[in-house]
Structures are given as C-alpha cells and as structure tokens.
Specification:
Blueprint lengths: L2 H17 L9 H8 L38 E4 L2 E5 L12 E5 L2 E4 L5 H11 L25 E5 L15 E5 L26 H10 L7 H9 L14 E2 L2 E2 L42 E7 L9 E2 L18 E4 L18 E4 L8 E2 L3 E3 L2
Parallel strand pairs: 3-10, 9-13
Antiparallel strand pairs: 1-4, 2-3, 4-14, 5-6, 7-8, 9-11, 11-12
C-alpha cells in the first residue's frame, strides 16, 4: 500500500472515529428488545445524595499529587472481585464474554468536570491537543483546514436533510476545544459541574498524572460501571427505565431528527443528576463516553484474565503509532434507534488524537 493510500485511510479513520461511536450496525434483535421492552425485574436505584445543579464541580481536597503521594479526592473504592466482562447479546465487538478478576481500586465517583480540568490547566499551563495546530508531518494527507487548532463537533440535522449518512452529522470545527466545545461562540460558562469534553487520550492522561493517578483499563471501567450487577444489561438492572424514570442522560426520540429530552437534557448534564450505582459511581453510562487505557481490538480474548491492562494487538498500517483506544459508557447522543451503547459492556474505538463533544473521562488509583 502506497503512502498516499495510507494517508487517505488515516484521514478516514480519524473522521470515522468520531462517527462510529453512534453506529447502530450489528445489534441483534434480542438485544434491541432488551433495551426497548421492559424486563420482568430491575434493581432498585441506590438511595444517596445527588450532585447535579447544586454541586460546584470540584470535590473537597482536589490538588496535585505531592511527594509521590497520589490525591484521592472525590473517589470511591471498588471492591476486589470477579465478573463476566462483555456480552453475547450486544454488538459484535462486545464478545467474547470472559471471566475477569480484579484487585480493589479507586475510581472517580463522577466524570472529570470543567471545573476540575480548569484547576489543572491553571496550575500547570497545560494546552490541550485541540488548542494546538497539528504537525503536517504527523498527519500526512490531512487537509490544511483540519490542521488548525480545533476539534470534531456534532451538527444537528435541519429540516429535510438526509438522515442516512452519519458523516453529515460531524465536522471538524476550527476553534473547538474544551473551553468552547462547539467552536467560537460556544462556552462552558455556567457549566463548571458538567463533564469536560473535547479532550484527547493524551489530555486525559496528563490530567490523571497531575493527580498521581491513571486512566481506567477497560476491565476496570466495566466492572465499576456494573456496580456489582454481574451480567445485567444496565448498571441498575435489566430495564431501560426504573418505574418510568430515566436513569442516565441519553437521547429519547428518533435520532437524529428529534430529541424529546424526557430525561431533562439535550446535551451534557451536570455530573451526578441521576442515581449512582451500588458502588456510588455516578453516570457510569450516558452523558459522555469515557477514555480507557486499552488499545482497541474487535473482540475480547476468550481466556480468563486477572487485572488485565492494555490489550496488546498488532495495529493496521493506517493507525501507525497511535492505535485506537477503547471508550466506554455511551453518551447523550445514544438513542434506542441508533446507538444502544449506554450499557457497561458497550465499547467503541476512538482515535486517541481526536476529541469530540461527547467524550470525557475519569481517573483511577490502584491501591494495595
């Protein structure tokens, strides 16, 4: 394969990474019915204090790691245990189901917020990838207009626009970054307690390192998100709602034509507006997708594993030194008719150099 074709594939890969996140392809009928139809029983939501609008977005005690001691503010402990990772009833990439054993660890009880990320930037002077121009040598074949500082945004279709081409709904927007998620004119003012978005894998790693932490592995994220409900469809049980109540920030209505916002939100929601799971983890699914450490492969290994870290895979030529990473959890753009990925087992690949309006992250701390 010549260099031009490789460059063209890399460009398509980068753009596809932003759109594939909401692809409906491959969900078996039985999985669709599990999402749309009510199952016989569902776990009761955990009673506990919400965060949401009254929360300023910063847990008490948040500060950088000192003298090699990681910061633990705002984290919940996940107990050691075994669980069945993946699903045979979801999309093909959620297979194979395998048993995974994990040691105890700490995880942020909610997504990293704009306010938390702002503290990091103020303390370190960090400049995110979206705020920097791209080096043409590292992105051969990419048009000049996509090398300027910016990121990928979702564009809501208008009027009679075609709904059958996912590429139409995404565009590279100059000036889009974590402070201006949809580009110039947009702002996070008044959204300190919303999850930070438009951050790349490298941006998320930099923040985690500042606190002496790491990003979760895919196994850690899925285990924590399940909240002890091994094998259930959702972190709260097997029904998409509980007694008619929405349990996560997702899309209700015919995507992408109409969002009925029955859960109260059309975009991101403040963190912690929905009940936490049994481990005290808010927004384990929905709101925003979240970065993990794992390199992506299209199936889980079949073998049982203990504390699996980054998956080792041979990468296709068009990803070069930047293999796609696994993101977890789904987002506010996931709908029953198009993206049924607001489930713990759901997973997607994402170009690590590209942020979007619906990808954020949280951190973990592995303790003995």
């Amino acid at each position: 394969m010549n260099s031009k074709r490789i460059a063209d594939r890399r460009r398509r890969h980068a753009l596809l990474a932003a759109t594939i996140l909401i692809s409906p392809v491959g969900l078996p009928p039985r999985a669709v019915s599990a999402v749309v139809a009510a199952a016989p029983a569902a776990a009761a939501p955990l009673a506990g204090k919400r965060l949401c609008g009254a929360y300023d977005g910063v847990p008490a005690g948040l500060e950088p790691a000192k003298d090699g001691v990681p910061n633990r503010a705002g984290m919940v402990r996940i107990p050691a245990g075994r669980f069945r990772m993946g699903s045979n009833d979801g999309y093909p990439e959620e297979r194979n189901v395998r048993v995974v054993k994990l040691a105890s660890f700490l995880i942020d009880r909610h997504e990293v917020t704009n306010a938390e990320f702002a503290r990091f930037v103020a303390a370190t002077g960090y400049v995110t990838d979206a705020e920097r121009a791209r080096d043409p040598a590292q992105f051969p074949g990419v048009p000049k207009e996509q090398l300027v500082p910016g990121s990928v945004v979702f564009v809501w279709p208008k009027g009679a626009e075609r709904f059958d081409d996912a590429y139409r709904w995404w565009k590279y927007q100059p000036g889009a970054n974590w402070r201006h998620p949809f580009g110039p004119g947009s702002s996070i003012v008044g959204k300190d307690n919303h999850p930070v978005v438009q951050v790349t894998y490298g941006d998320a790693k930099a923040y985690a390192t500042w606190l002496g932490r790491d990003l979760p592995t895919e196994a850690e994220y899925e285990y924590a998100a399940r909240g002890g409900l091994d094998g259930d469809t959702y972190p709260w049980g097997n029904t998409p709602t509980v007694q008619g109540r929405y349990m996560a920030n997702t899309w209700q209505g015919d995507f992408p034509a109409r969002n009925l916002a029955r859960d109260g939100y059309k975009g991101t929601a403040p963190v912690g507006c929905f009940p936490p799971n049994a481990y005290g983890m808010f927004d384990p699914v929905g709101n925003v997708w979240q970065w993990t450490r794992d390199a992506y492969e299209d199936r889980h290994p079949k073998e049982e594993a203990e504390n699996p870290l980054v998956v080792t895979v041979s990468q296709p030529a068009d990803t070069l030194e930047r293999p796609a990473r696994v993101i977890k959890g789904g987002s506010f753009l996931c709908a029953p008719n198009f993206c049924v990925r607001y489930r713990p087992s759901s997973r997607q690949p994402q170009d690590p150099t590209l942020g979007t309006v619906h990808i954020g992250f949280r951190t973990v701390l592995r303790v003995q």
